[in-house]
Amino acid sequence: MQPTRSRFLGGVVPAALALLAATAIALLGAASSAAKPSDAELAQSLTAELAEQGIEVDNVSSCRPANGGKVYICKWRAEGFFSGEVPYLCAGRSKYNVKKQRWNLGGCHNRLEPQVPLLPAAGPHPAFGFNEDWHQNTGKVDELAAIGANVARTGLFWDAVERNPGSFDWGTFDSLYSQMLSQGIQPLWVLYSAPCWAQAKKCKQGGHPSAEHFDEFAAFAAQAAQRYPEALGLEVWNEPNYDTFWGGDADPQSYGQMVAAVAPAIHSANPEMSVVTAGLSPHINSEKDAMAYKKFLRRAYATGGPQLADAIGAHPYPNRLPNQDYLGNVRTNLFRYESVMGQNGDADKPIWVTETGISTAGKEAFSPEQQADGLARMYSQFRRIENVPVVIFHRFVDQPGSPREGERGYGVLSGDGGRKPAYCALAAVREVSC
Fold it and tell me: Considering the entire predicted model, what is its pTM?
């Protein structure tokens, strides 16, 4: 049986539904020519018509005459999935014209937050790895390779390289770079932490550069692009919408201008190097110490900076309990990124997931077994989302002494280095023996 394309959703529905709808309309027309159509006839016809549009009606609650019986208005409720397994829950009002024997269906106004669609089947494996303080965990790089990872995200700290203007010390990062490449791992460097001489006013560890020093930051980034040509990319800062990592109040205009200075410098120094905007802290709403990531990204785009990057970084943490729809929340987070990108003519640009994860500690803790299952499911879901070529989990090793409770359990290795169930679960989805 050949499918017919739905006019309403752009999805594919069986041609039999079109015949069912036409039959129901014909029966309804015959009934209405002699007497008032019954509620059952109206409901049957409306259900068939909506089904042709890809909407699965649960019930038609009432059909009332209007305009002297020339039209009938029916209320309905529907729940199901749009094309791409995007869930919907909606209610509507549809109007039936008796004389013309035609429905005006109205829209399905989804009460659920939109999600990015899923591809019918998994795509190729993405570049995959872990975010970690790899400078402090050089002894774990071999285990990183053993899990099937080929990427390691870590900081490339400007204040450590250029403590004094014009004086550079790359030694720590040169050593880490060589070690990673020897294990088949590409670093994703996070350009971060301005030296005190480049910050405005009081110096803060991890603080951002002042606008007067964007050019010096860009020069540092350009040197990194030349020095580490086999890096996967350079990510411009980390979670700048969060005061903790920006070193002051979130400032999307300043961040966008910084990207506008850095991206061309990197591309000029090494045209093959990917420039990635910072993954944003997953604050849905603005708070005292953070700006909502969708708002931040929209305002950063207004500067023209993110448009110059090769990819948009994202941190779509699930932020749900194990018995909740954590996978759906990841898709909702990515949809928010995509909506802003689309509004700015950047819809085709890839999204790099430079951090996401599930912790076995804190308010939204999963058990170790639930973490293993959840991370494996998340990885498999990312393979079914178009244009997500990089997936990086946070983090590799638990931090049992961290004051931030969640950090004590994000790792796939325990604090003493033992493998948690998630280690082998991720190796399995990467098709690597464990």
Answer: 0.89
